[in-house]
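Why do we bother with holo predictions? Because pocket geometry can differ from the apo form. Keep that in mind while you read this record for magnesium ion.
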Amino acid sequence: MIKAIRGMRDILPPETGRWQWVEQVAREVFDLYGYQELRLPLIERTELFARSIGPDTDIVAKEMYTFPDRRGDSLTLRPEATAQVVRAALENRLDRAPGMKKLYTIGPMFRYERPQKGRYRQFHQINCEALGADAPELDAEVILMLMEILGRVGLTQMRLSVNSLGCPECQQDFKARLKLFLQSKEGWCDDCRHRRETNPLRVLDCKSAHCQALLKDAPMLKDCQCEACAAHYGRVLELLNRFRVPFEENPRLVRGLDYYTRTAFEVAAAGLGAQDAVAGGGRYNGLSQELGGPEMPAIGFAIGQDRLMEILPPEAAPPGLAKTFLAVLGDAARDRALTLLQDLRAKGLAAEMDFEGRSLKAQMSLADRLGATYVIILGDREMETDQAVLRRMATGGQEQVALKELPVILANFITGKI
Ligand code: ATP
Ligand code: MG
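The structure, written out:
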């Protein structure tokens, strides 16, 4: 039997219902804050990611699904959304319209990582990108919106960490100091020995505990910040305090992509084990120019939806529509039930029946398996009097009702009017 590829998985009902609900909640919050959806291709030119994310990052160095197409062009399954949102904004000239562009996109990402709990090769993100403004108020709003989505789906134990990565000028100064520090110590992992020459910032993001321990006395980005970057960061923190968003500053937070500037943040959640980051984001003021576009300061975040689903409280997702099952006995009743089925659906009531001539007992257990709230029992005898039996599955209570009144009675039951 052919199986799915390692690290890729099928998401099945009823879990898919919970996924849809989470996406719905995110869409509602995005609406409230003025964000609109983009739907983007899953494949892009490799160059887009190589250029924006940076050659020494984990993503570009070892995690991309890259392959030549039939013409030999190098294509890559998207490992993240920000670069392609900026690509799409520039290509479709969204940057020419006045004002900010507030965009979101939801869908799968691909990274060739070692599959484990909370880490898949196809995973799913809810992405937000706000293009065209550098105001610290926007940074605070984006973080508030992220926390609102996570709060509305029922997460309670979250830790928001924030940091400022400064602008390219502050970073240049910092990189020089960091490089000296890294060269002054021995014992770095192979990756970090390479990174300290090519891209010292990446060392801060190393997953090795040994490198992290060596970093204990490393210089802090914060101490190299220019006045403008420090003021920007200060205002973001002030607003987070004003809106009572709990956070902690983490001066070592750098994020795994090269394009970040100024505000960077991450949300860790309890219950996820080792892979506990449920969302991350930050400002990327230089990315548009990096991709050949005009100056376009921007900030965004990505929620890891797979991890979010993992810790969603079970009571968080509301139950689906109350369902009615039509149990039929006899050919005339079966035929009449087809009309009733469509009448119920026309009233907005979810309804199903058996088409395979099961016994009444088998139909009742099917109704149970389907989670039906009500069962209508319709036999040839009931048909003669234009009546049916309505059974409430929760209590087992039954009553006779007139067939033509059934849709109205059921609708009233379900909307709680009687
Ligand atoms: P990590 O440090 O866990 O590898 P990251 O910094 O690579 O995360 P981002 O690029 O910031 O992750 O992506 C944002 C979010 O997407 C992460 O916080 C996480 O929830 C989720 N995510 C990233 N990679 C995976 C993966 N392979 N499987 C499942 N979720 C993922
Ligand atoms: Mg990663």
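Residues 80, 111, 113, 118-120, 123, 125, 256, 275, 277-280, 302, 304, 306-307 surround adenosine-5'-triphosphate (ligand 1) (CB under 6 Å).
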